[in-house]
Design brief:
Elements: H1 12-23, E1 27-33, E2 36-41, H2 42-58, E3 66-70, H3 75-87, E4 90-94, H4 100-110, E5 114-117, H5 123-126, E6 135-138, E7 148-149, H6 150-153, E8 171-176, E9 186-190, H7 191-205, E10 212-215, H8 222-235, E11 238-241, H9 248-255, E12 259-262, H10 264-278, H11 280-286, H12 290-304, E13 311-314, H13 321-329, E14 334-338, E15 348-349, E16 363-364, E17 369-372, E18 377-381, E19 388-389, H14 393-398, E20 406-414, E21 420-425, E22 430-431, E23 437-438, H15 440-447, E24 453-459, E25 467-472, H16 481-495, E26 507-510, H17 530-541, E27 548-551
Helix pairs in contact: 2-3, 7-8
């Protein structure tokens, strides 16, 4: 059943009623517990939504008040979100990996009156960020202490049946950005912006009641909230969850998803596992033999649990074009997409997959307009845009031009067919000690073509020339160091002659410590914090010259 895009507003709560009427006893959500699914039908989800909303009323929470959600993905996350919509509350999702300081800031800035706490890996470290005055409610998992447990909430007060009518202009959620610099900003999204974006995703990806989705990327991030949770409301697709990191591969195979979105880090890890099992040279040989090639490709898809997928996607952070090209060779086409919290994460996508446009993030989707500012910045306008930043009227006003286009902060190139290549961030450009400005991202993209590179960051503020910091791909771990050094040197020597003299990269340094969220190098959406690496490495690499390739322990 395909839902048409029209002007008649339907909230997620309206859509839940729609699916209850059509398929009330069919399974909607699948939560793995101890390796087995606990299933929730559409009707059960609606009943629990009404009961949780009723419990919030019973506890004195008023429509329009903010309620936070701090949890990894689970069925109760969806139910809680629906209950907040149904009760007229404004949801404030928080990343399950957020530290205590970030949690405290978001709760205080948003003025949240209550918080739902669920599946968390490090709740003991995070609890200090949840103030004593705020009402805590716990989902049925091992989590921090709370005044009310899930089972008691399901019995508290009366189910909220006759709830306030949800209108399109009402604020649905405030989503705090995981910016690479400064304090997070709260993007205000209405029911209208959320509905439009979810319907656009369903329209373009052609999902329906036959599809099976897997929700495991953080629901606190707008991409997962729209692409998995939101699209399920408007497509009727069944959604499964992941129990833990250890069970991830088994959970994917059990879910048999028909649509699968991931982040570059995971696609890189999958690549390593494939190469480890088959061997790099053997795989290349097998892919050249016509009949065997198709068998090998089928077994790889099956091994990953993706044999039923009609769409694969990557987003949240840049993915090396060499990685998409590698997957294309083994018969897996990954559609790269671009979006932001501020535009509900869906504006530009390389879908249907176009192999000749690998390296771009695709074209603007129907209903979204893009243009390039005089300084090369990408400007975007769509019905999915936020109304502004919470409590920041001046920043909100300066984020839009006179025609209502949003300033993304990304620099871009747009080709004759409308395909967009992100070439950097407006704020990323730095000045070397010679007084020349360098745009690092185009150089990073060229160097990232080396298959040994997973993540790369060029620094150089105050240095004579730029230096490239590299985290090796998972697949490189099994290869001899000198082989990697030789490959990186060849890549650098092929890139430098095509750069301006002040842009040439003096050296590549292979870092020892993996970049992740815990050591503050990556944002929760896995974007690199360039300023953090500048601070840690500038003094270390100053003095490297002549196109050298060095490991950090060699400095």
């Amino acid at each position: 059943m395909e839902l048409q895009m029209d002007s008649h507003f339907k909230s997620p709560v309206d859509m839940l009623q729609h699916w209850v009427d059509l398929y009330g006893d069919s399974t909607y959500l699948r939560q793995p517990i101890n390796g087995k699914y606990t299933d929730f039908s559409w009707r059960e989800v609606q009943q629990k939504m009404q009961q949780i909303a009723g419990a919030l009323r019973h506890l004195g929470l008023q429509p329009g008040e903010k309620v936070a959600i701090l949890s990894k993905n689970c069925a109760e996350w969806f139910i809680t979100d629906l209950a907040l919509m149904h009760g007229g509350y404004i949801s404030v999702p928080i990343y399950p990996t957020a530290n205590a300081d970030t949690i405290r800031y978001v709760l205080e800035h948003s003025e949240a009156k209550a918080i739902f706490i669920g599946k968390l890996d490090y709740w003991a470290d995070q609890e200090a960020g949840v103030g004593g005055d705020i009402l805590r409610m716990a989902m049925p998992y091992d989590t921090m202490p709370a005044q009310y447990q899930w089972d008691s909430l399901l019995k508290l007060g009366q189910p909220l049946i006759d709830a306030p009518v949800i209108t399109s202009d009402k604020i649905m959620t405030i989503i705090y950005t995981s910016g690479s610099t400064g304090k997070p900003k709260g993007a205000i999204q209405t029911f209208a912006s959320f509905e439009w974006t979810c319907k656009a995703v369903v329209r373009d990806l052609k999902t329906d009641v036959e599809d099976r989705l897997l929700s495991y990327l953080p629901l606190a991030h707008i991409t997962e909230r729209v692409a998995m949770e939101g699209s399920s409301f408007y497509s009727g697709s069944c959604v499964a969850f992941v129990e833990s990191l250890d069970s991830f591969v088994d959970d994917v195979k059990r879910a048999r998803p028909t649509v699968f979105f991931s982040v570059p880090r995971l696609w890189s890890l999958f690549q390593k596992n494939i190469i480890d099992k088959i061997g790099y040279k053997k795989l290349n040989f097998l892919l050249k033999v016509p009949i065997i090639s198709s068998i090998v490709k089928g077994k790889i898809r099956q091994g990953l649990g993706l044999e039923h997928c009609h769409l694969l996607g990557s987003g949240s952070a840049p993915i090396p074009p060499s990685l998409i090209t590698w997957y294309h060779k083994i018969g897996l086409d990954i559609c790269e997409a671009w979006g932001m919290t501020e535009n509900s994460a869906y504006s530009i996508i390389n879908h249907p997959f176009n192999a000749s446009k690998i390296g771009t993030v695709g074209r603007a989707v129907e209903g979204c307009s893009i243009k390039q500012a005089d300084n090369g910045e990408l400007l975007v306008k769509s019905p999915g845009l936020m109304t502004g930043y919470y409590k920041q009227p001046e920043t909100s006003a300066s984020s839009f031009d006179a025609e209502g286009y949003f300033h993304t902060g990304d620099l871009c190139a747009i080709d004759d067919e409308g395909y967009v290549t992100i070439t950097g961030r407006v704020k990323d450009n730095f000045k070397t000690s010679k007084g020349k400005y360098v745009a690092p991202v185009p150089i990073e993209r060229k160097l990232a073509q080396d298959p040994h590179v997973e993540l790369i960051c060029i620094i150089g503020s105050g240095l004579p020339h730029p230096i490239a910091l590299v985290q090796l791909s998972e697949g490189a771990a099994t290869q001899p160091k000198e082989e990697i050094r030789s490959s990186l040197k060849a890549t650098l020597d092929s890139v430098n002659p095509h750069l301006e003299s002040h842009e040439t990269v003096d050296a590549i340094v292979v870092v020892s410590e993996p970049w992740d969220i815990d050591n503050d190098v990556l944002t929760p959406t896995l974007k690199i914090k360039r300023h953090v690496l500048e601070e840690r490495f500038s003094a270390k690499v100053d003095g490297l010259r002549g196109g050298k390739i060095r490991w950090e322990d060699e400095l």
